[in-house]
């Protein structure tokens, strides 16, 4: 009943909803249908109070002109019960990791620089759709999982691994070990721009130039620390990217993240064409 009333009325308490409405208006997007369900994942008993943490899975049918698409979000919330009454209910902010900036090493001359591959964009996107809100048991699940998820998508598209066992070199995953570029947003951003063979990224100026299977990197604060990565899975009616991501799991989200609590006016982006 709470969420039914929430969506039927104006609400100033939940930042994500207000940000999303503002972004949709700027894109001429209307929500044709919305549904959701919650899953409690943690309870903390504090005597006469109880804290409950839950994931709200929102599924929205979006209409942009004559174009329809489905957008989904997993949004963490917390509420506090006291004497069976809700005394606090709020969204948990999107987590922006303060990751250690590892130095990427130049590869030795022994590396085979003739490595070529044909990027299977369809396979990468299919993987991104299959695992956007779950975790492939073949890989470790990270607390900050965005880059691990993107790396898995690239690997599913045929990207060749190289550099093992040096964690500061190349891009690779082997059992219980992996390169920093596989799992750390900052490292993957610099690997894509610096790689000259195999998996590499060609930077383009505009997000409209990206196609499904390409990657966007985000520096939310504009301080040179790249915190997040997404993969393009579709384009909207204006030819702009819709992306999938992990950490706060999202599907067919608008690329700019202006609706994110992590967004700041100083945000910086890098747009990478993969494989071409």
Write up what this structure looks like.
The protein is globular. The chain has six helices and twelve strands. It has two domains: 2-91, no CATH class; 121-274, endopeptidase fold (from Nostoc punctiforme), CATH 3.90.1720.10. A hairpin with a 2-residue loop joins β3 and β4. It is of the alpha+beta class. Strands 1, 2, 3, 4, 7, 8, 9, 10, 11 and 12 form a ten-stranded antiparallel β-sheet that branches. The longest helix has 13 residues, at 15-27. The mean pLDDT is 89. The protein is 20% helix and 34% strand.
Give the overall form: globular
Beta strand %: 25-35%
For the residues shown, what is the average pLDDT?
89
Give me the CATH fold name of the largest domain.
Answer: endopeptidase fold (from Nostoc punctiforme)
Q: What would you call the structural class? A: alpha+beta
In DSSP terms (H or I, runs of 4 or more residues), the helix count works out at 6
User: At the first level of CATH, what is the class of the largest domain?
Assistant: Alpha Beta
Q: What is the annotated CATH architecture of the largest domain?
A: Alpha-Beta Complex
CATH homology superfamily of the largest domain: endopeptidase domain like (from Nostoc punctiforme)
Intertermini distance: 50 Å
Rg result:
20 Å
Poorly predicted ranges: none
Q: How is the biggest beta sheet arranged?
A: 10 strands, antiparallel
* Strand tally: 12
SSE topology string: HHEEEEHHEEHHEEEEEE
Overall domain count: 2
Question: Approximately how much helix is present in the residues?
Answer: 10-25%
């Amino acid at each position: 009943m709470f969420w039914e009333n929430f969506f039927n009325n104006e609400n100033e308490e939940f930042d994500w909803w207000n940000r999303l409405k503002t972004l949709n208006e700027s894109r001429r997007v209307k929500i044709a249908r919305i549904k959701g369900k919650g899953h409690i994942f943690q309870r903390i008993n504090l005597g006469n109070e109880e804290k409950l943490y839950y994931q709200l899975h929102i599924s929205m049918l979006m209409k942009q002109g004559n174009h329809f698409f489905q957008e989904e979000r997993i949004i963490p919330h917390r509420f506090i019960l006291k004497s069976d009454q809700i005394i606090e209910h709020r969204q948990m902010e999107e987590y922006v990791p303060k990751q250690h900036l590892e130095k990427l090493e130049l590869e030795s001359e022994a590396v085979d620089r003739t490595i070529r591959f044909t990027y299977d964009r369809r396979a990468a996107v299919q993987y991104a759709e299959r695992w956007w809100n779950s975790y492939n048991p073949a890989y470790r699940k990270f607390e900050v999982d965005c880059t691990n998820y993107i790396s898995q998508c690239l690997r599913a598209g045929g990207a060749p691994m190289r550099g093992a066992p040096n964690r500061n070199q190349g891009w690779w995953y082997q059992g219980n070990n992996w390169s920093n570029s596989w799992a750390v947003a900052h490292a993957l951003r610099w690997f894509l721009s610096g790689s000259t063979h195999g998996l590499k990224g060609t930077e383009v100026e505009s997000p409209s130039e990206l196609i499904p299977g390409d990657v966007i990197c985000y520096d939310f604060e504009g301080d040179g620390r790249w915190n997040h990565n997404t993969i393009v899975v579709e384009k909207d009616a204006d030819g702009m990217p819709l992306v999938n991501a992990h950490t706060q799991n999202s599907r067919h989200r608008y690329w700019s993240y202006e609706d994110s609590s992590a967004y700041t006016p100083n945000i910086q982006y890098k747009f990478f064409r993969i494989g071409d």
